[in-house]
């Protein structure tokens, strides 16, 4: 059982939402992706917290948190290692066709990761670059500009894009948070730039504190990142992964990224009972 729609197991070939739902017409909906380690969900509660905040910001009605959590656990338990995607649709607005919001919970495999992660910097004028937009931290379904940026970077021979403001301030990746190491300290863009409050970022900050590694959050130009000793990407699928090339600039590997990745794995083991390094 891979897909539940409103809690009902649905064959993959039949898994759909109405075309009159605004998630189809306008990309109006919110979502989360939670890592499943052999059926054990990692940090589900923070993901559900963010899902509820996003749904509240867009005024999307949805089932009780406990039901969504139970559906996610059911799909993860049935399918095992991978990712569980939770989608809350916005419902319809057509005055002739009534469409209620839908809740979709589905399993998917973890995307294949490149051996060397490379990113192409590009300006993202659609990104708010501030938390004053009225929708800070909403993980909405409208990812078209971000996805197009990833596609553009891949056509140019890179793994993914790295988004900046038009002025060159570092923001985030299309689907990941970025951080880097300078003189033994981790630096990362601050949330007041309107970047997504990443769950993996939070775990990395916890790991850094436990390892005694200093952390600074702020507004940094791309040049600051290019001068860093190490650079890393953080996300549900990437976990803690070194970035080895930014544009044509090669980045050295380093011990702090390795230490943070190891500490991240220890947190996963402690909370799920499974070793992420042993899971393909």
Layout of secondary structure:
Layout: E1 3-5, E2 8-9, H1 22-25, E3 29-37, E4 40-41, H2 44-58, H3 65-79, E5 82-89, E6 103-108, E7 117-123, H4 144-155, E8 160-164, E9 170-172, E10 177-182, E11 185-189, H5 199-211, E12 215-218, H6 222-226, E13 230-235, E14 239-246, E15 249-250, H7 255-272
Parallel strand pairs: 7-8, 7-14, 11-12
Antiparallel strand pairs: 1-2, 1-6, 3-4, 3-5, 5-6, 8-9, 10-11, 10-13, 13-14, 14-15
Helix pairs in contact: 5-7
Structural summary, described in words:
This protein is an alpha+beta fold and about 280 residues long. The chain folds into 2 domains: about 5-110, Aminotransferase class 4, branched-chain amino acid transferase, N-terminal domain (D-amino Acid Aminotransferase, Chain A, domain 1, 2-Layer Sandwich), CATH 3.30.470; about 115-275, D-amino Acid Aminotransferase, Chain A, domain 2 (Alpha-Beta Barrel). The chain is built from 7 helices and 15 strands. Strands 7, 8, 9, 10, 11, 12, 13, 14 and 15 form a 9-stranded mixed sheet that branches. It has a 6-stranded antiparallel sheet with strand order 2-1-6-5-3-4. Helix 5 packs across helix 7 (about 255-270). It is globular, with a radius of gyration of 19 Å.
Shape: globular
The CATH H-level homologous superfamily of the largest domain: D-amino Acid Aminotransferase, subunit A, domain 2
What is the name of the CATH class of the largest domain? Alpha Beta
Major sheet details: 9 strands, mixed
Q: Domain count, please report it.
A: 2
C-alpha end-to-end distance: 21 Å
Give the H and E element order: EEHEEHHEEEHEEEEHEHEEEH
